[in-house]
Amino acid sequence: MKAIVYTKYGPPEVLHLEEVEKPSPRDYEILVRIHATSVSSGDWRLRKADPFAVRIFFGLTKPRKTILGAVFAGEIETKGKSVTRFKVRDQVFGSTGMSFGAYAEYKCLREDAVVAIKPPNMTYEEAAAVPFGGATALYFLQKANIKTGQKVLVYGASGAVGTAAVQLASYFGAAVTGVCSTSNVEMVKSLGAEKVIDYTKDDFTKNGETYDVIFDTVGKIPFSGSIQSLNKKGILLLGASGMGHMAQRFWTSLASSKKIISGLVQGNLADILFLKDLIEKGNFRSIIDRSYLLEQMAEAHSYVEKGHKKGNVVIIVIPGI
C-alpha cells in the first residue's frame, strides 16, 4: 500500500511517499481503507520534534512511529472473526490515537477504538476534519462545564479547533465572542459567534469586557491580559499550551479564584458519537480550507505550519470518492 513515511525529524521534505506492507486485521480488529485524513498542528510538530520534548516520547534520535496521521474517514474492507460492532463496507471515521498511521491507504484498528459510523450527510473529507478540532474543542469546553448564558471568548476562532469551539459553545448556549483576522470575521460569525474581534485592529484584553471562559486554541494568547479579562471565577482554557504554562497555572491558582485548564486531550468514543449526532442534526459542520492529494503531503505540512489556515486542511487518500 502507499503511505507517507518519515524516518528523521525535520522540514516537510522529510515526508516521502513509499510502498509499505499492507496490514492484516487480527481477530478483534477492523481494516479501514482510508479515503481521507487531515493535517493538524500536532502533525507538523511531531514531524519537526517541536518542542524538543517530543523526542522523549516519540524517539530521541529518530521517530519510532514512521507514519503520522491521527484522524481518518474511510470504509471497512475486512474485519477479524471476533468483530461484532462493525460490518464490511461500513463507512467510518475516527481517531487512531497514539498509534498514528492514517497517512496511508490502510489502517488496522481495534473494534473498540475511537471509531464510529460516518454521518451520512458528510463526505469523507468533511468527516476526516471532525475528530481533531471537534474532539479537542469538546474536551476543553466540557472541562470548563460550559453553561447557558455564559460569556465565552474563543481566541484563534478560525482554526480547526477554533471553528469547532465557536459552534460547540454556541450550541451549549453560551454568548460567544470570536477572535480572528480580518479575512475570517464573516466566517466566524456564520458559525454562531455573537461578536467577532479582529485582532489586527483591536486587543480584546483592553476593551474592558470580561468573560466566564477564555479558550486559547492556538497557543498565542496574551497570558496576563487574558487573566485580567476573566471574571472572578473565570476559566482560561489552554488548548495548545507549552511547558511554560505550568508555572503560570500554578501561580494563578494560588493568587486568585480563577482557574487554568491545560493538558493533553483524551479522545474517546463518546465524544465522537456526540459530534456525530450534532452533525446529523445539522448543528455542526466542518470548515475546510484546502485539500491535497496524499503525494502532496509535504506541501500540505508546509502550509499548515505557517499557521494561517482557515479551519482544516484535508488529505485525499483515494481521489474521486
Describe this protein's structure.
- The protein is α/β, with parallel strands linked by helices.
- The chain is 27% helix and 26% strand.
- The chain has ten helices and 15 strands.
- Strands 3, 4, 5, 6, 7, 14 and 15 form a seven-stranded mixed sheet that branches. The chain has a six-stranded parallel sheet with strand order 10-9-8-11-12-13.
- The protein is globular, with a radius of gyration of 20 Å.
- The model has no long low-confidence stretch (mean pLDDT 93).
Produce the secondary structure layout.
Elements: E1 2-5, E2 16-19, E3 29-39, H1 41-48, H2 54-58, E4 71-79, E5 91-95, E6 106-110, E7 115-117, H3 124-128, H4 130-143, E8 151-155, H5 160-171, E9 175-180, H6 185-190, E10 195-198, E11 211-216, H7 223-228, E12 230-238, H8 245-255, E13 259-261, H9 269-280, E14 288-293, H10 297-305, E15 312-316
Parallel strand pairs: 8-9, 8-11, 9-10, 11-12, 12-13, 14-15
Antiparallel strand pairs: 1-2, 3-4, 3-6, 3-15, 4-5, 5-7
Helix pairs in contact: 1-10, 4-5
Estimated share of beta-strand residues = 25-35%
Mean of pLDDT: 93
Measured on Cα atoms, how large is the radius of gyration? 20 Å
The structure class reads: alpha/beta
Helix content: 25-40%
DSSP helix count? 10
Coarse shape: globular
Query: Helix and strand succession?
Result: EEEHHEEEEHHEHEHEEHEHEHEHE
**Largest beta-sheet details:** 7 strands, mixed
Unreliable sequence segments: none
Distance between the termini: 18 Å
What is the number of strand segments?
Answer: 15
